[in-house]
Amino acid sequence: MDSLPPTTERDPHAAIREEVRKLCLGFPGAYWRVLDREHAYPEAFVRALADQGWLAALIPEEYGGSGLPLSAAAAILEEIQRAGCNGGACHAQMYIMGALLRHGSAAQKSLYLPQIASGALRLQAFGVTEPGSGTDTTALKTTARRDGDEYVINGQKIWTSRAEHSDLMLLLARTAPREQTAKRTDGLSVFLVDMRKVKGLTIRPIRTMMNHATTEVFFDDMRIPADALIGEAGRGFRYILSGMNAERILIAAECIGDAKWFIEKTTAYAKERVVFGRPIGQNQGIQFPVAKAYAHMRAAELMVYHAAALFESGRDCGAEANMAKMLAADASWEAAEACVQTHGGFGFAEEYDVERKFRETRLYQVAPISTNLILSYLAEHVLGLPRSY
Ligand SMILES: Cc1cc2nc3c(=O)[nH]c(=O)nc-3n(C[C@H](O)[C@H](O)[C@H](O)COP(=O)(O)OP(=O)(O)OC[C@H]3O[C@@H](n4cnc5c(N)ncnc54)[C@H](O)[C@@H]3O)c2cc1C
Smallest Cα–Cα separation from 260: which of 305, 298, 286, 304? Predict the structure, then answer.
């Protein structure tokens, strides 16, 4: 666990990291392997995180959370991944509540935030992506039609992760037809759906290459109270966008944790595995890929810190959050590659956890935003090149 040199001279979140590591010791590889085989949800792990308050890190103290900055949440998620656990089971609670925090009414905040902070309610589901829209979010077709003091929801979402294990869902739906809005980003609204209380909601699990509890969700005349609307109708896309930098930074931190896990695992194995009468780690063909992955991880980590610092000081961090996510996801994937290769055949054996983590970290090349779209963002918004799509 501590085989890598410390990454900062003075880590303001060292105590948090230490506590999260201790918690994770109770959830070793064997725990994740069983769940992975059965595609089961890590209920005990998520409960333990909630009981110790880690999932309420970003909720202000007045609502029962610990009011910590984003960098603390990043440290929590990084340590979870570094310990070989999988924060994908619950990470969304950290970033999707930003929409409620920033744009929710006082009544919504005082109703939901204390219950989320205590762990009584889970806000883990984020319904944005649709089969027909993909990355082009504003093309989404799920509608929310106002009917008296209710909204009636019809449509479908895909990849709505953790929907079966969450009480609440943050849902993005269309309240005005695209052709009737001045901008394509108008006419979308965000709702906080209490899934325990609705009819007309069907959730179907999707089996994926890793255990991610993801689903497709169907809305068939699903009625929700009008006060489930967050902020103003029609401004939902902006609300979602405003949370995306936090999401990118936190996912990047998870990738840094993954990269560290792979690098530690690789070096430990390379030191102990003897072939041709010497440790395989004595061969430069084994050393260089992991050394390169380490250098790339450290560079990505600096970008994560930089993006988090900009975010915390209230400055624009769109480019840095995107770069942090891309560089960290690349670093974790590179480290994963080196880890499998160094383990030879054992890299494919379940009991080493390498193949499981390899599958898990692959996701972050695609979700929550794919590398191509980050590059397009940088080309257009930072380099001033013409929009490509
Ligand atoms: C396991 C898993 C969990 C997920 N969880 C959630 C969740 O909880 N909530 C949620 O709302 N969504 C979730 N997603 C969805 C995820 O955010 C999307 O998969 C992702 O944004 C990509 O969208 P898409 O799959 O429709 O790909 P598409 O948009 O169809 O893109 C396919 C490929 O084409 C490329 N591409 C598309 N347009 C361009 C372009 N203009 N230029 C260059 N390349 C382009 C993309 O980079 C990608 O590689 C999850 C996905 C997965 C796989």
Answer: 298
Indicate the pLDDT class of residue 1, thresholds 50, 70 and 90: very low
Taking the C-alpha atoms of residue 5 and residue 267, their distance in angstroms, rounded to an integer, is: 13
Q: Which residues contact 9 (CB under 8 A, 6 or more apart)?
A: none
For the chain, the distance separating the N- and C-terminal CA atoms, rounded to the nearest angstrom, is: 44
> So what's the pLDDT on residue 242?
81
- In tens, the pLDDT along 156-189 reads 999 999 999 999 999 999 999 988 999 999 999 9
Cα–ligand 1 centroid distance for 260 (angstroms): 26
**Adjacent-strand bridge partners of 125:** 169
**What is the residue-wise DSSP string for 340-385?**
HHHHGGGGG-GGGSHHHHHHHHHGGGTSSS-HHHHHHHIIIIIT-P
Determine the residue of 130, 138, 159, 217 to mutate for testing ligand 1's pocket, defined as the one with the most ligand atoms within 8 A of the Cβ atom.
159
pTM: 0.97
d(CA 94, CA 85): 17
Q: How distant, in Å, are the alpha carbons of 209, 227, 281, 356 from that of 278?
A: 36, 68, 8, 28
In angstroms and rounded to an integer, the radius of gyration of the C-alpha atoms of the chain is 21
- The pocket around ligand 1, CB under 6 angstroms, is made up of 126-129, 134-135, 159-161, 208, 212, 214, 363, 366-370, 372-373, 376, 388-389
